[in-house]
């Protein structure tokens, strides 16, 4: 029997496991080995020595470079190298070592294994070289016999494969983490499932191919969809499992979900239980029977990954709630803004409408919220029928719908038709109406939420015109609304930067001409010196709620000035301050008045609060209650602009006011108009009859004063006596 060389025995020992495992390996992906050496014989000898041998069941393919420079060019286009066999001395003494630095530091190829081969060890001492460079083996060319070279390559390839598996595992984990913050439900679930694919394949040492994940939707009871697939099954993504034409795939996944367990026979199928009737299943064609250790690893993997799937599904539900209305099963405002942005890519012929159901709160108050929900569902059903499938709908408010579609469908006529016939809800016949604001996308430069703002502006204009009407948005409307917004923004800034201040217009006894007090009036002067009229900014302050801090500022300033006037010897001086309905409704209004009196060091009897007649009639019960508390603090009360509203004598008595103030319009018309004269006379007579003091504003001439004195009017203010003035000027005026 012929004796076998020791090297040959070692070669057979190394090669034997590969044959046992080769039937499970793919032979179409060889290991790629780069030889870098300036000696052509080395290239030929290496390739000849490895001819016919396999590593890990795969053949070897050799690439060649005769210099470090040539290797750099080749590496620029090759990123799938397993091993580099590298000579040290080539065009320079350290050309090979510099190539190592290039591979590791510049190309960032950390997985490729580098075996340094040298015929001149003196140029690169082994210990120092291993310490200084990231290489994986160091051999002299003389010791690399056929068997030793095979041993080195096998160890390097195995190391390379393990590093690649770890890297694939890391990428899978990164995808799973990334999916937890994904903004789209299907995208999030799909990316998470892709991460599971990559990680599973890394665990099993196979390429990420032939794996399918399916979601079981517990809400519908029988819906199973493919949410991730790779390799030959990639075309099945997002398809219902029942429609999959591959029986082996469909049957195994259905069995896994039905029996709620993993199977390792006839292909590997993994079960992920998620609770509440939901589950995930993953099928992977491993190509072999898994051993017990691998099955244990996969069981642990499934248990851990199930938590991740649960989190992704929970996140998906949160996204549903963030972008969909659960009651009406319509997109909500957030999703509708996205739809608007998508349609702006081709806005021609598209109209946006905001449809607001008139007086819907009355329905909720009369019949209850459950009935109101049914009404909304009935409205949505009829709108869907009449607007068609090509029209997008969303719920953008409690009783407001956004509609997006072609001009012919989304128009006032269609909206009117929707609400023309009564709605029958729980046996009740309801005749509803809706007010609509519309925007033609092709005529607007706005985007997304700005378009909704334009539609809201048109809707508000329609409501001001007539309930149940429709109004298209125009550039003029937008300009007005944006000017108001700009003014409000400037008002906020102006208040914070002390651009608002108080002036005082004296009030006199018409009979004697003596000053009895002053009205505190708010003014706004911008940084560039412009004065903004009060009738422009005060309504904005009331609508925005800014009147609350501004009103407190006026009250405290007026109290401080009143204290100063009393200190100057004007003991009976009275300060009048205007208040608004927004202040009356604020729960802290009375406390604010009490603080202002206390901090200012004045008594309530020296201050008069002025409210308008229309305000007094708007919510008579509230006004009566608040006025009663005001009276307890000692304040007197005047009704401003009297004669412009519709108050009754009985209401006037219940309010327990102290003064009636004749509006300036009636003062101006008193001598030139019969109507003006009549109203002025009526107010004076009413006031005197109720025992109230009557004061007129806007007196500009002696003739007007004489006329009012003749009517019996007690007090007055106006330019005839003094214009509104700063505090210092008021003090000087009082001296004179």
Automatic annotation (TrEMBL):
Superkingdom: Bacteria
Residue intervals of the EAL domain: 484-736
Pfam name, any one: GGDEF
Domain Response regulatory: 32-156
Record-linked InterPro entries: CheY-like_superfamily, Cyclic-di-GMP_PDE-like, DUF3369, EAL_dom, EAL_sf, GGDEF_dom, Nucleotide_cyclase, Rev_trsase/Diguanyl_cyclase
Keywords, sorted A to Z: Phosphoprotein
Residues carrying 4-aspartylphosphate: 87
Entry keyword annotation includes S-adenosyl-L-methionine: no
Domain GGDEF positions: 348-475
NCBIfam families membership: GGDEF
Protein name: Bifunctional diguanylate cyclase/phosphodiesterase
Source organism: Pelomonas margarita
